[in-house]
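INTERNAL AUDIT FORM
Audit reference: QA-55
Scope: verify that the stored structure record matches its stored sequence.
Auditor: D.O.
Record contents follow.
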Amino acid sequence: MAKSSTKAPAKAPAWIAPNDPLGAFCRSNHASLKGAKSGPLEGLTFAVKDCYYIAGAITHFGNPAWAEGRPVPTTTATAVSRLLDAGADMVAKTHCDELCYSLTGENVHYGTPENVNAPGRIPGGSSNGSAAAVAGGLVDFAIGTDCGGSVRIPASYCGLLGIRPTHGRVSVEGIVPFGPSFDVAGWFARDAQLFERVGHVLMDADPITVAPRRLLIVNDAFALVEPAVTSALVAAVQSAKALLPNVEEIDLSGSALAEWFETFKTIQASEVWANHGAWVTTAKPALGPGVKDRIAWASELKPAAIAKAKQRRAEIRAHVDSLLQPGDVLCLPTSPRVAPLRNSPADKIEVEYREQAMRLLCISGLNGLPQISLPLGRLDGLPLGLSLAGPRGSDLALLALTRKLMSNAQS
């Protein structure tokens, strides 16, 4: 494992707006770092979500009040250091949703990055700046985090490859903790070969050595989306079937994904409050729509409800573990919709749309599974992701399968 770097970021005398026409990069706490002179990622550029610590740079965590009274980090997050050691250059920090507690990409303090593949629509959050920067070609790849869906949703909305690795597979040392039992470090890319190369830098060899061999179509996940979404993904599903002809259909949850989401929601909120409740109570920061409501709800959770949810998660994990075998690949929609329009009503985008998406996204979160969103669908001319997920520890095998599937789709 690479050691956290202690070298300070390059100082920019002033922010030059043309460097970022999309509003993806942080301005007041801009930082950049030069990578090693050689390595598997030599000559490539990347950007880093503003919840990763960078030595010598302030972390805002999506809210300008977050840095007040906190020491400036003296070390750089392990995942960033590994990328630097592999030869890639970090060119900027990227905006994130407020406290990383949203899926929209609309931050009341820092604005909304442009989604070049869905003009006039949100990029998705909370890793919105990282996704927007990759989609817009500002960098070759970017890293973000995914607790509830904050890599997978932006990947789907922006037409990118995006991965939520197996929980604990990529180091989260030097990242602001959010919901630690769900938090992972993930990344975005436009190119499948590069996407896989980044994985080999950030992860050691798979503990599971069985190659993908059975495709499981998650019927209860497809049942949650509109027929138009399913239709838009048919060709992508057929392509996956062509690579994995051993195909079965499965009801993974017993049609209980709404209840699975409530379990996820409770545990996540309890962890968010445990990590940040004291700061919210003391600092009383201004919080935007949705985030403010979720923080308030988290503050009122009772120990009995949290304990019940944790017990239910253990039951869900045992159930899924009994169904998933080495070599299995789950196939499901990443999102129930394409990117919503910017400035959609808060009750729609922060409650209704969020809860619909989380019923799909909570599957991998609750079970610690790796999941990749592939930009293989289009609906009304807009990007739509299809997801492949596998047993814990099958990340590199999923990345190789993704490369093959993307190659077939582009040929």
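Auditor finding: record pair retrieved intact. Strands lie at 45-49, 89-94, 141-146, 161-164, 184-189, 214-218, 247-250, 328-333, 371-379, 382-389.
Action required: none
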